[in-house]
Amino acid sequence: MFNSLRMSMGWVHTWMGLVLGFVLMICFFFGALSVFDREIDRWAIPDTRFEPQPMPSFDNVLKPIYQQLQPDPVDMAATERRVVGTLPDPETLKLESLFAYTTHRDPVLLIGGEFAIPNQPIDPADDHQHVHGRATVNPATGEMLNDDALKIGSDWFYPMHFSLNLNWMMLGYWIVGLAALVMLAGLVSGIIIHRKIFREFFTFRPWKNLFRSSLDLHNMTGVVALPFHFFFAFTALVIFASNIYLPVTHTTLKPLHEHHEMLEAERKGLPHEPAGIPAPLASVDAMVAEAKRRWAERNMAGEVGFLSMNHLGDENGYVSIYRAGSDRVALVGEGIHFKASTGEVIREEPPRSVVSSIDEFLTGLHLQHFEHWMLRWLYVFGGLLGAICIATGFILFVEKRKAKHARNGSQGSRIVDALAVTTVTGMVLAAVGMLVANRLLPADLAGKGQWEQTIFWSVWGLAFLHAAWRSSPVAKARYNPAWREQSLLLGLMSLCAVGLNWVTTGDHLIKTVFTDTYWAVAGVDLSLIVTALIAFYAAAKLRAPVTEQKIDDALSRNKQVNAYD
Q1: What does the pLDDT look like over 495-523, one tens digit per residue?
Q2: What is the C-alpha separation between 292 and 302, in angstroms, rounded?
Q3: How many CB atoms lie within 10 A of CB 125?
Q4: pLDDT bracket for residue 548 (50, 70, 90)
Q5: Half-sphere exposure (CA, 13 Å, Cβ side) for 48?
C-alpha cells in the first residue's frame, strides 16, 4: 500500500486517530475533570459544602437511617419487567444486605442496600432477585440529603469518560474500549513516524503559522505525556476486560463461576446463602473498633472506608469492614469479616499474591483514590495534554487538506472542522452550561438532575448546529468563525457560573480562599476563571484578518504540509 513502514504508520495514525479521536477527546477531557469529581459535587450541591467526616457510628447513627431506606422507584420498575407478576409494595420489602461508603474527599456518606423480592425471574438464568435502594447522608448529623440532585462530578462527568453516558446495551463502554485500542495503535504509530522525538520534546514555536505551531504543539503534548497516555489506555482496558469486554465468567462460564463463588465462600468461611434461621445483630461499633485495632497492630492504622453486611437478620449473616486505603496507591482495603450475630472474627484478609498486588496497584494508579494532591494535579495536566494533542490533530488534518478540498469542491474538511469545533469548544460549553444550569435551576425543583442532563446535551447539540452552520468558509480554504464565537461564549459562560455561585450561595472567592477556606468550591471557581481567560485569549488570537485569507495563501502553506510528509 505504501513504500515504507513510516508512511504506512502515518496513514494509520491519521485516519484511525481521526475516526475515534472525537471519542478520545471526550475521554481525556472528562477524565481530567474526574480527578476532582467530588469537589465538583460540592460546588453543584451547596448542602454538602462541609468538611469530610469519618465513617459515623453504625449503632447510633446509621442503623436508624437504614430503617428509613426505600427501594429505588427506577430499579423497581426495571426489576418488575424481569420477574413474574407484580412486585409487592415497596414498604413491605425487607432489606437483605447493605453498604456504606466514604473517602477522604467525601463530606457525605453514600449508603445503599438490596431488598429481597418474592417474585421468580422470567428468565431462569437471571439471578437478580432483589431491588436496590440508595441514599446520601450527612455523616455528622445522620440527616438524609435530597438525592434527587445530580452529583455532576461523580455521577455525570466521571462516567462520561469511560461510558459516554450511553448505557443502552453498554454501548458507550464498547465505543470507549475500541477507542482505547486505537489510541494504543496511535501511540505506537506516532513513535514510528516521529523520528526526531527527543527534539520534539523541546520544540514549540507559537509565533509560526497555524499549521507549524499546531504541529509543534501536537508533537510536544504527545511526547511529554506519552507514558501517561499509554498507561491510562492500557489500564482502562485491563479494568473493564473481565467484566465487560470479555465477561466469560458471567456468560460462557457462568455455571463454573457460580460454583467457584460457593467454593470460595466456603474456603473463606463467609456463608454464600442464608441459613433461614433468624438471628440478632451484634454491636457493629465493637466490630469496627476490633478492625481498627488489628490494622494498628499491622502498622496500618486508619479509618473505615467501606462497610457491608450480608444476609441481614439471618444466622449466616456477616459484616465486612474495609480500611480506607487513601494513604497508598494500590486499591486495597485490608478487609476483616465478622459474624453478624456474635461479632467474632471469621476471616482477616491475608497478604496479596504478587499478581494480585500488581493488579491492585495498576487499578489504584488509574482510579487515583489516594490523598496526594500534587499527583492528582499531574493527572489533570496529563488528561488536558491528551485533549490538546487530539485537538491539534484535528487542526492539522483540516489545514493539510482544506486547500485541496476547496479546489476539488469537496466538503470533507468542512465536515471534519465542524465536528472538531463541536468536540473541542462545544464539549467544554456543554460542561460549563451544565454548571450554569445547576445554579439557575431551583434547588427543590423536581427532577432537577434530569433537567441538568437535558441542558448538557442540548448545549452540545446547539454547538454542533452552530459549528456546522458557520463552517462554510472552510470549503473555501478559510477559517471557521465558529471557533472564535464559541470561545467567546465559553469565556462569558464560565464567568457567569462563578458569578451565579456567588449570588445563589454567597460563596465568593474571597470567602472560600481567605476568610472561610473551602478549596473544593474555590478550586472549581478558579478553574472556571482560568477557562474564561484561556477562551478569551483564544478568541483574540482567532480574530480577522486570518479568517479572510484566500485560497492562494492556503495553497502556499500547503507546500509546508507536503514537505512534512
Answers
A1: 999 999 999 999 999 999 999 999 999 99
A2: 7
A3: 7
A4: very low
A5: 31
